[in-house]
Each structure stands twice: as C-alpha cells, then as structure tokens.
Amino acid sequence: MKLRCYAGKRAMDIMLSVPMFVLSLPLLIPLALAVKIEDGGPVFFRQRRVGRKGRVFVAWKFRTMKAGDAEKGLGKHVARTDPRITHVGRYLREWGIDELPQLINVLVGDMSLVGPRPVLPAHVSQYSERQRRRLEMKPGITGWALVNGRNTLPWRERIELDIWYIEHWSLLLDLRILLKTLWVVLVKREGVYGEGGLEL
C-alpha cells in the first residue's frame, strides 16, 4: 500500500513539475541573467542537503548572496538586512523565487513538490529518534510547516508539523498545501524571516 502511495506522489510530482518548469522558463532565464550580471558570480547556489532515508543530495537554488560570502557573517543564518544579500537576491528571497531551480531536484527524484524542507547534515546529526521520522519522505519545495508559519516557528515545532504531515499524508493534502503556498508565499509573503529578522 505504501509503495502505491509513493508511486502516486511521484506521478503527481512529474505531472505538475514538468509543466511548471516549462512555464517558468521565461522567468528563470532573465532571473539567471540578472543574478549573473549583478556581480559576475555563479548563477546557482548548490548545497548538500539530507533527503529521504538520510540520503545526501545537492539542492539547487538561485544564488542570493555575494559570491563567496555564504559562510561569512552569520553563516547559515540570514538576516533581513544581511549585507551579504545582493540586490537581486533580496527580491528573489522576498518572493520565494530563489527556490524555483529546485524543480530540477524534483524532476531527477531527489525532492518532491511537497514535503519537509531539506535540511543540512549538521542538523540531522542532532535529531532525536522521533525527529528522524522527518526523513521518511522526500523533502519538498514547499510543505506543511512552510504554510503554517515557516521561519516564524522554532525548529522543534517545524519538525513536529513535518511529522504530522508524514502521518496524515495524502495526495489531497499535497494539493491543499500547493494551493496554500501560492497564498502564503506570493500574496501574504509571510514567514521568510523569523524572530529578530532572521531566517533560521
């Protein structure tokens, strides 16, 4: 039964992500040029993340920080007024567009459209046995925690929301989350930064 469920989820990922990728190309191409032209650095930021069953993969995003600055200043944390963020990058972050290249991760099977957000290996090493349940499904571009508070929530609460999602998963829930994402990210634009203006 579980295998059939995962097959249905994968089928929905393919059916939705292919047209999404094609339709977003007119936006992706000029954005890629804008990122490149601003400071001449790489267009994409690639980072090792942990996926389903602890498998490590490389997640793709548009680069939003000045080239070589990702490990400087606040390091993994990012502030709303962070001087490392480029002008183009600030726009990409506010609208959540920096995540669009992760459609590539969905197409190759590393990620799903909906699921727990992919995390750094250092975070996983601190998980309790219960928190490791978060790795039972592929990470997603959006997810239950993202549409219910995003970075305004502490990590522990976000992980509990992700576990709730895994326990109650259905294709209908995925569709509900996708629709809610449009409202939260594109209309309300809430939760990009949490307490103290930090993205944690």
Task: Compute the CA-based radius of gyration.
Answer: 16 Å
Give me the secondary-structure category. Answer: alpha+beta
Shape: globular
Major β-sheet annotation: 2 strands, antiparallel
Poorly predicted residue ranges: none
Quaternary: single chain
- The total of beta strands comes to 6
Helix and strand sequence? HEEEHHEHEHHE
> Whole-number average pLDDT?
87
Helical stretch count?
6
Provide the helix percentage.
Answer: 40-55%
Describe this structure in words.
This protein has 200 residues and is of the alpha+beta class. It has one domain. 44% of the residues lie in helices and 12% in strands. The protein contains six helices and six strands. The chain has helices at residues 2-39, 87-94, 102-108, 121-124, 155-167, 171-188, and strands at residues 44-50, 56-62, 78-79, 112-114, 140-142, 198-199. The chain has a two-stranded antiparallel sheet. The chain has a two-stranded antiparallel ribbon with strand order 3-6. It has a two-stranded parallel ribbon with strand order 4-5. β4 (112-114), α4 (121-124) and β5 (140-142) form a beta-alpha-beta unit. α1 (2-39) packs antiparallel against α3 (102-108). The radius of gyration is 16 Å and the shape is globular. The termini are far apart. The model has no long low-confidence stretch (mean pLDDT 87).
Short description:
By secondary structure, this protein is of the alpha+beta class.
Helices and strands in order, then pairings?
Elements: H1 2-39, E1 44-50, E2 56-62, E3 78-79, H2 87-94, H3 102-108, E4 112-114, H4 121-124, E5 140-142, H5 155-167, H6 171-188, E6 198-199
Parallel strand pairs: 4-5
Antiparallel strand pairs: 1-2, 3-6
